[in-house]
Structure formats: C-alpha cells, structure tokens
Specification:
elongated, seven-stranded mixed β-sheet, homodimer, 463 residues
Chain lengths: 463, 463
C-alpha cells in the first residue's frame, strides 16, 4: 500500500467546500492548506453551479467534479454527507487520485456498516487507500493539514521525527499535537484514523518504517479490526524503530464505552498487553508515559542493552527516589569498587571529599562545584560497565555556575553513551533545560520521567 | 509540644552570621528575613568582637550571645559548626527561647549520634523543641524563611493552605516549593526535617491539625525513628485533615541508599503501605500524585463517600481513557435510566440529539454548543446518585464560546457537589483554566490527574 500521497501530496482536492458556510470542515481545510502548506490545493463542490467563486476570503476556481481539474491529483479530502461519499470516492478512483481522507461521519460508528463497506470496495477496485471515515485525517507539516479545527483553537507541533497515530481524533489533537508541541517535540506526521475502514495501524507502521524522517511511532489504540491486531504486532516486530502503544479501553467498562463510540472491538487487555510485550511493542501506561517516550525517542540516543546505569545527584533525597523508580522500571545500578571510589574521591574538591557518598547513586552533596560534577560525570561515563548516566540536577546551590548545563553537555559529548537529565521544571531553570536540549540530551520534568526515558532506551531493543 | 514559635515567630535570632562571608547560610537567612519577612530578626556571632557591624549590605547590631538581646526571642536559627551547637542550644534554653532550627550538619548523618543526643537532652531540659539538625528548616510565609539558598536560585510558593513536610531538604525545595509554586498552590508551611532528632512528622501533624490556615498535609518520608512510625499513623488517624505521604525508599536497594544519606531506617514498604491504608493515610505514588493531591486538597471541596461519579465529555476517546483510570482508581460510573436519557436528549440541541452518547461517560460530541454543556452538567449534578462530575473540556470546537468556563462554573456553583475538570494544559487554554480555578474548581493537566484528584476526594474520608 503506497501512502506517500497521503502525507506528502503535491496536489490536493478538497471536496465539499461550501460557498456560504466559512466554518464548513472542507472550507477550513481548504483555507488552511491554501495559506500555509506546500500542497497545491483545489476546491470542489458537486453542487456548485459556477466555476469561480469567493469563499473564506479567497477567490478561487471551484470545480464541480474532480475530473474537471487538469492534471493529476495526489490526495482527495472528502467532507460531504455520508451517503454521497461512495460515488465521490469512485470518481476519485476513476480519475487516478492516489489517496483520500474521508472526514465525513455517518458510517459504521452509527451502524451504517454497509455504506462503509462500499468505500472499501471502491478503494480496492481503484487501488485508492483512504483514511477514515469519521476522522480528522492527517497533519503532516509542511505538506498538508486536513484537520478541520481552526488554527485559533488548536496548537500544532513543528516538523520533527515522531509519528503519532490515534484512533481518537480528540486525543490526537490534544496529546499528539498540543502536548507534543508544548514539550517542543516535533512530528513527522499525526494521523486520526477514525473508523479505519481501509488504512489502519499496521499499514502505517509500514509507511513510517520506510519514512526516513521518522524515528519512532506512537499509537493510541482502542481496538483492532478482526485479524488486524496480529498484523500490527508482526509489523511492529519487524520495525527497526520503536513502536509505542497507549492502549485505551483496558477496563471492562471502558470496552463498553469503546464500542458505543467507535465501531471497533477491544479485546481482553491482559492478553493484549502480553502479546505487545512478546512482539517488542512498548506500552505507554498513561499520558505522561507517552510524553516521556516521545521525548526520549525524538533524541535518537543509543539503546542500552542491560539497563546498567549510574545516578549522579547532589540531593540524597532525589537519589533515593530515582532508585525506587529504577527498581520499578527494571534498571540496575552499577556499583563502584572500593579502589574506584578512592580514585574518584581524590579527584573531588577537598570540601566534599569527606561527605560525598560514592555508592551509586553518587551524591556529591549541596557543597559540590561545577568541577565536581564534571569530574564525576566523566568518571562514570568512562567506566565500561556503565551504559548510561542519569543526572539529577538541583540548581539551587550557590556553589554551581549558570554554565553548569553546557559544561556537563560537553563532558557527555565525549562518550557514545546516553545521558538523561532531571531538572526541576520551572521558568527559572529553563536556561539549564535549554543547554542540555541543545546538546541533544533529554530533560525530564520529574525524576520519574527521567527514569522512564531511560527505561525507554532499554525497551527499545528488539529481541 | 508547642510549635507556634517555629512557624510564626515574632522575634528571631540567627546565630552564626559571618562578618566576612556573605554567602554563609546564617547570612543568607538573616538577610532574607530582614528584607522580606515579618519576624524581627537579630544577628548573633559568638566570635564577634564588636556589637555593631555591616554584613550583606545591612548595618545592624551583631550580638555575641543570645543573652545580650533585650526581650524574648521566639526562635533561634543555628548555623555554626556541629561541635558548638549543644552549648549554643543550651544558652538558648537558658534565655527562654521557645524553639530552634538547627541548620548545621555533622551529626547522626555522619555517625555523630552522641553529639546529636546532646541536643535532644538540652531540648528536653529546657522544653525547647528544635527542627534538624542537618536541615533547611522552615518556610512559613509571610513570617519566616530559614532556607539558606538564595532567592535567585529557588522558587517560592505564596501563602496558602497546604503544609509540606519533607525528610529531604532538596525534595522540599524542588517539590514542596518549586513545583507547588509552578502550579500556583500556596503553602501554610514547608518544613525540611533533616535528621529529625527532636521534632518529627508526628509532632507536625499535631501542629498543622490545630493550625487553622492548613487544609491538608503532605509528607515526604524515607523512614521513621524507632517507635515514631506508630505515633505518626495514630496522629494521622485522629486528624480531620487529609494526611498524604510520599514514601521514598520503597525498594530494597533504595533503603540502602537511605541509610547511607540519613540516619533513619526504612522498614519493609509493603508492610508500611498497608499500615498507612489502615490508618487512613493517603499515599502518593509519584511526583505527579503529590501535585494532584495538593491541588485538590487546596480547594476545600466536599468529600465523596461512595465514589459515584459522572463523566461529561465531547471526545469519546477521552471518555474511554477517563473510564480506564476510574476503574483503576476505584471510582464508579453512575448509569442513567432510559427515561433519564430520553429527558436529557430532548433538552439537547437538535444537531447533536441523534449522535450524543448518553451512556456514562456522556459524550456530547464535537458538534455540541455551550448550552449543551450547561444542560448536561446541570442534569448530572441534579441527579441524586451522582456525587461529583468529571468534566473533560476539549476546547477545540468552533461551536463553543470562550466563555464556556465561566458558564459551566456558574452551573457548578448551584450545587454542593465537587466538579473536577480536565483542560489540555497549554498557554492557549489558560483562560479556561483560570475561569474554573477562579470559581474554586480544580483543573487537571491530564485526564489521569483529574481522575486522581477525584479519587483524593474519596480517600479523604476517614473511617
């Protein structure tokens, strides 16, 4: 299934543009793409009785049918009443359109399975893959945006390397767009699948696997269509990129809610979860997990095989909290030998030598200076057994400088090992967050998030 | 044990102020309180050879001993070398000082248990309760701040109704001050307990229980001193206010780290956790839990007895996610009867009547308007069986106004039932967050946080 036309269309037709309702989904979509995206966009309205019109402050030719447009169309975005979609999709097929997004609702989600099946037959006949129906479609900057919500209402991430694919359009807009944008994580594509009558999660793993700009894929899944769950995990297992799933509808009662708002079925969660594990799918348990995994995988860090790490802190309390989460998330603390401790201790400033605790977590105490941090980080990264370092920054100390972030980033760069940092998330410490992020080092909002990111690097390993 | 002098001292002596090191902890503390807090502050340095001096840009009298200060002193903040603390504390006792904060380290945490014991004996003899040693002490706005970190490095919450008591000073500064401030949650007092040789968690429950400005207490605890764990849970059980504990050092390996950085012992976590439950202590599992509970308890909402709630959403996907978390957190969804559904449906706008899903979660769909929200919220709050409503706001719809928050807050005010809201956390939606918060309605950053807050209201019920 060739899906490139969906994500990087050169020429797009928006079908259903209204001449008198500027808030019609087709109008919002036409207008956005006309103004902001690279695709060349054409307006179609089967009921239009003229070939030129003015709508949404734009004067453009409005076509009565897709066949009236000269030249090839890569993508058709369809936002007309449900009953008219099959014939329009057929027209698209006849005119060689290569892909479609069906925004319109009124199909399987309200019981009209037969109408939906007609779309599938057309798509098969004309080799015309489509997203939807009953969806928001695709956000693929800078190429295309089929989301019919106005820019004033939503928040959009920049172009980046995370693919976010969601069964729920609302969750895609909220989490895959707004929350990722808030964390400054960019996307290679966001997809709202809707009823996923034709293109589904398994097809999209294939697409994003071959898409060079994508580093990892994150899926929101309520349920699979019959037989497609297996296909999905098989594709996930084959993928060299991390495949993260946030499974919604885990509880019995939620499964009932799923079937009432979509046409898909949700299986027993415990079984599903164990299958995910078996096929190397990484599960996100909650919304913060999604962010932590999106963040760490957007950094293209090396995987860690065993999960053997060192923790560097200046607050014993934070060290203990990190250790708890490491235990919970299956990471191991590498111990230093007595000889190593002695060597490291002698390299530290005299003021902290008697009080620093060199059991892992290494606690330099609040009296440490920039050079102590640099010395200890260097020492830990140098040690063969340490695969990665978790750095807990507590920038309260008067004894460290405002350059501590860039200094430590420089130390980290000398080694081909991941460093993940916790910095208390506050405007006051943004300079520190920026110094690490600029150097490609991910920063967590909470100690737990930093540990979750580290675990992501371990779980990323495919069997 | 009378602790009011610690939190609301009228006259404070800071002992250890240096004449030549402006960054000495005693100097930072003196200077902060002199400039910003209501307590009258006096500088003491036993080594001072004159009675007036200039330090930190302040010209003030510097006393050689506490006895030289005319009039009563409520609180002594002691920051001198460990070996000199017992005699200074004794002097404080002799001169009727009512409480002390011992900032100095060098006691049980590095093995000097006997020196620490001397402090306890003095405190007992003179009825002079003290916090510490080896601590940051107390932040109690607008009265006093004994934290020796400069204002430029830390973030401080406003006065409010949450008491935050932490065994780890670093965690208090990070979570109890910075993170609470970031969420605009105010505090009635923050305490860093350090070695807690005298005043400990159990004493502080008693104090904050009787402190009228406190609504709830949040504790970070690594371990209890012998016999004091029992006392703590007994006090917690007696308290009419929610007592939240974040237990650090849960894993075996973390317990080892605890004993290496503090002098306290951490017991088996599974046992501790079951005792907490038995005594009505609310456990926070992670950093986000702490925030969610602090937030909800800062709102003084009514408790809910059974946990029977209704969910109102416009995104089916978010509804499913909320249901999963409700199941996980032991909340129940009240079902509407067929007759009730029919009544509600008829009150909705014709456009959404055929598509709204009135199974709980009530999904008004993305085509709903302000009046649909108002109608449905009113209907749910009116229903006797519904104890509280979880409102999932997805402000993407063109069909709702920017006044939706204040409109719904007005509906909520008509009923004596908690409403908790989820709003996607983004600058773009802050108007909505503010409209709810202004009306005393807590807003979660994630669906899970909103559900956690709701659970807090259920768990708040003491047996």
């Amino acid at each position: 299934m060739e899906l490139k036309s969906l994500f990087k269309p050169e020429r797009t037709a928006v079908i259903g543009v209204s001449l008198n309702n500027p808030l019609h989904p087709a109008n919002v979509i036409y207008s956005k793409n006309f103004k902001e995206y690279t695709t060349e966009v054409h307006a179609v309205n089967p009921a239009a009785d003229r070939n030129a019109a003015s709508f949404n402050g734009i004067t453009a030719r409005i076509y009565r049918q897709i066949g009236d447009i000269t030249g090839d169309i890569d993508l058709a975005v369809i936002a007309v009443k449900a009953g008219r979609v099959p014939s329009i999709l057929k027209e698209c097929g006849e005119h060689g359109v290569k892909g479609a997004v069906v925004i319109s609702g009124g199909f399987a989600e309200i019981g009209n399975r037969e109408l939906q099946q007609q779309l599938v037959e057309v798509a098969n006949k004309y080799d015309l893959p489509f997203i939807g129906p009953n969806c928001l479609g695709i956000y693929s900057p800078p190429y295309i945006d089929t989301i019919f919500l106005s820019n004033a209402r939503i928040v959009k991430p920049e172009r980046g390397n995370i693919a976010f694919i969601s069964q729920s359009g609302g969750f895609m807009v909220d989490q895959g767009m707004g929350k990722l944008a808030g964390e400054e994580i960019g996307v290679s594509g966001c997809v709202s699948l809707g009823n996923k009558a034709f293109v589904d999660e398994a097809n999209l793993i294939e697409y994003f696997e071959s898409d060079e700009s994508t580093s990892a894929m994150i899926f929101h899944i309520e349920g699979f269509s019959p037989g497609r769950g297996r296909k999905f995990v098989e594709q996930a297992e084959k993928s060299r990129k991390p495949v993260v799933v946030f499974k919604a509808g885990r509880s019995e009662i939620a499964r009932k809610a799923v079937s009432s708002h979509t046409a898909s079925l949700s299986g027993n969660y415990v079984v599903t979860s164990s299958i995910f594990k078996q096929y190397g799918v990484i599960e996100a348990r909650d919304e913060f997990d999604i962010i932590a995994l999106a963040k760490v995988f957007s950094h293209n860090l090396k995987s860690i095989a065993r999960g053997d790490i060192a923790i560097l802190t200046v607050s014993g309390g934070h060290g203990v909290i990190a250790v708890d989460f490491c235990q919970e998330y299956d990471l191991n603390l590498v111990q230093l030998s007595e000889a190593e401790k002695q060597i490291l201790r002698e390299k530290l400033n005299p003021a902290i030598r008697p009080i620093a605790s060199l059991e892992n977590p290494i606690d330099l105490t609040g009296s440490s200076s920039d050079t102590d941090y640099e010395t200890a980080l260097n020492f830990l990264l140098e040690k063969k057994e340490v695969e990665a370092v978790l750095l807990l920054m507590l920038p309260y100390q008067e004894s460290i400088s405002f350059e501590i972030g860039s200094k430590l980033a420089k130390v980290a760069k000398r080694y081909d090992k991941p460093v993940i940092v916790y910095v208390p998330w506050n405007r006051r410490y943004l300079h520190l967050v920026n110094d690490f992020e600029k150097a490609g080092i991910p920063v967590g909002h909470t100690v737990e998030e930093a540990v979750k990111m580290m675990r992501g690097l371990k779980r990323r390993n495919k069997k």
